[in-house]
Specification:
There is one protein chain. This protein is an alpha/beta fold. The protein folds into two domains: 2-118, NAD(P)-binding Rossmann-like Domain (Rossmann fold); 130-435, TIM Barrel (Alpha-Beta Barrel), CATH 3.20.20. 39% of the residues lie in helices and 18% in strands. The chain has 16 helices and 15 strands. It has a seven-stranded parallel beta sheet with strand order 7-8-11-12-13-14-15. Strands 3-2-1-4-5-6 form a six-stranded parallel beta sheet, sandwiched between helices. Strands 9-10 form a two-stranded antiparallel ribbon. Strand 4 (62-67), helix 4 and strand 5 (87-91) form a beta-alpha-beta unit. The longest helix is centred in the middle third of the chain and has 18 residues, at 252-269. The chain is elongated, with a radius of gyration of 25 Å. 38% of the residues are buried. The structure holds zinc ion. Residues 228, 230, 238, 277-278 line the site of zinc ion.
């Protein structure tokens, strides 16, 4: 019988490791380290609960330590355990850098101890099944593979270590180790905003650094970057503001060179796709030219072609702090009543070189998605926006509707209308529901 010490009683420790250890013949859960709170003591009255790593390592009989703590602490705690002569299992991700990982493996070898990483999803039935049918040729020769795993909340949770800026935080370390992601869409929230959104082409800006970091960590990942000024301007509009005859409005032609700068900057940082969401006339062609001139010909454009002036964007604007400070975006976003204008804009974007065409929002515009599907050969993307998502969540919370059922119905309707690609905050939940 091997006595096991479990370090960490968060979601992974509580819902997973403690139960697996208890259910595994030959292992005995001897102690749990929970720094704060009494859940461990309440749930496992027969298990000793300690408050520090030192206290846990003082228990002589413990031979194996399972580490399920915030990602950045994996390496120092694992080191401490190995030095105290224990075998170690570390929850994924093993460490936040390759150097730390190599250091631990070397230390374990010197001390004659075992260390390994627990990568649960690699053993899931669905993952195994996919691997099987790919390797035995059931699917034939695969020429293209698409998958997505989006964030499902538009706001940050205060105090959550996964959502702070630090080496082991973020969706890449949190979710990617379950099943490496293949495409991400990035939106920027800069430190400073000004009238022309100049922080958006800063090579060390949030989106540029994220692209570089992601490409370093997971070179095969497809990264898309949203191109627009509204997240970066102090007035919250998507372009440059000029005043004519006492009326302030966005100037289309003065905005184009700035969007080109931004798109080139994201592409130079390594983005595979840029996704202009600004709705200025001629921007797809201008961005295509700017990219081609700098030999960034491989970088694709996913155009927000039919982006309607909509009340459904509220929760995202709140999260991105990008509500217009005066007026609204109706002069450059589309009139919801006008489908022919939407089709004309899509036509223009396609002519100017868009590789993918998007309709946004999705739910009140299913007829536009259908019309686009029938008219164009391009992949059609539909953006199921924050307000559409929040309505479902709010009504489900009050018990007015069956949330999962309505989510299914909505996503099915978008697909039925003809979308090839759905960008939605429901993605994680939906993926879990179909995975069973
Ligand atoms: Zn915008």
């Amino acid at each position: 019988m091997i006595d096991v010490g479990l370090i960490g009683f968060g979601l992974a420790g509580r819902a997973f490791h403690a139960q697996v250890i208890r259910a595994t013949p030959g292992l005995r859960l001897a102690a749990i380290l929970q720094r704060h709170g009494n859940e461990a003591a309440e749930k496992y009255p027969d298990v000793r609960v300690v408050r520090s790593v030192e206290e846990l390592l003082d228990i002589r009989d413990i031979r194996l330590v399972v580490i399920a703590t915030p990602n950045e602490t994996h390496a120092p705690i694992a080191r401490q355990c190995l030095e105290a002569g224990r075998d170690v299992v570390v929850d994924k991700p093993f460490t936040t850098t390759l150097k730390e990982a190599a250091g631990l493996v070397e230390l374990a070898r010197r001390r004659g101890r075992l260390i390994t990483v627990y990568q649960n999803r690699r053993y899931d039935g669905d993952f195994q099944a996919i691997r099987q049918i790919v390797s035995d040729g059931t699917l034939g020769r695969i020429v293209r593979f698409e998958t997505n795993y989006d964030r499902f909340r538009p706001d940050l949770k205060p105090g959550a270590w996964r959502e702070r800026v630090s080496p082991g935080s973020g969706i890449l370390f949190d979710l990617a180790p379950h099943m490496i992601d293949h495409a991400l869409v990035l939106f920027g929230l800069p430190e400073t905003k000004d009238a022309i959104g100049s922080s958006s082409w800063d090579p060390s800006g949030p989106v540029q650094s994220a692209i570089e970091g992601i490409k370093r960590a997971v070179p095969g990942m497809t990264v898309m970057a949203d191109v627009c000024l509204c997240e970066y301007t102090d007035h919250g509009h998507c372009g440059v503001i000029v005043e004519r005859n006492g009326v302030k409005d966005v100037d289309n032609d003065e905005t184009l060179p700035l969007l080109m700068k931004q798109a080139v900057s994201f592409a130079a940082a390594g983005a595979d796709f840029v996704a202009p969401s600004d709705m200025m006339d001629g921007r797809v062609g201008a961005i295509r030219r700017a990219l081609d001139e700098r030999s960034l010909t491989e970088v694709g454009i996913m155009a927000y072609s039919a982006k309607f002036a909509s009340g459904f964007y509220g929760p995202f604007r709140e999260a991105a702090e990008s509500s217009p400070q005066f007026g609204d975006r109706r002069t450059y976003q589309m009139d919801p009543a006008n489908i022919r204008e939407a089709l004309r804009e899509m036509e223009l974007d396609a002519e100017e070189g868009a590789d993918m065409i998007m309709v946004k929002p999705a739910l009140s515009y299913l007829d536009v998605i259908r019309a686009a599907r029938e008219r164009f050969e391009h992949p059609i993307a539909a953006y199921n926006v924050s307000g559409e998502y929040s309505m479902v969540k709010a009504a489900a919370e009050r018990g007015w509707i069956d949330g999962p059922r309505v989510m299914n119905e909505i996503l099915t309707s978008i697909k039925r209308a003809g979308a090839d690609l759905i960008i939605t905050y429901h993605a994680l939940e939906f993926a879990e529901s179909v995975a069973g």
